[in-house]
Amino acid sequence: MKPRSKIVGTLLALGWALGVALAPGCGRPTGTTTAEPGAASAQRLTIGASRMNLSNEFIVMLHQAMLAKAGELGVALIVTDAQRSAEWLVQQVESIIALRVDAIILNPCEVDASASAVENALAAGIPIGNVNSETRTPPTAFIGSRDEESARLAMEHIVQRLGGRATSS
User: Rounded to two decimals, what is the model's pTM?
Assistant: First the structure.
């Protein structure tokens, strides 16, 4: 049994790689599913990753960063593409759970409809981290920005830049 702290730490490291993957020039993956042979090895962590849509440019950049970080960390990945279908996403996560992965990284399609994917992973004892989007059911970890916090920071910056004074044209 792999230590839970190592699994959650790796989950967060891969999620962090996703969060900073805004570099230009990332290409599209050639398939919707990538599995590395020997993924269920006792020595190596295996992480499942379900993406909302691998045709979205931002998600593709996140995907490429995750693949690079997984390679760097020696983590085996199983990646799926839900093609914007919460139903497919839940089914894919159920398949990933059946493979007994060490953790799951989820890019949810919808707050409510994707929640059962999180519930199923947690019920199976598998840590799950949501990336960039939230679900009604709280995951083990969340990697992304909070819209309310981002808006507050943006408004504070605008007020500071305007010196506390608004101008009109």
Answer: 0.69
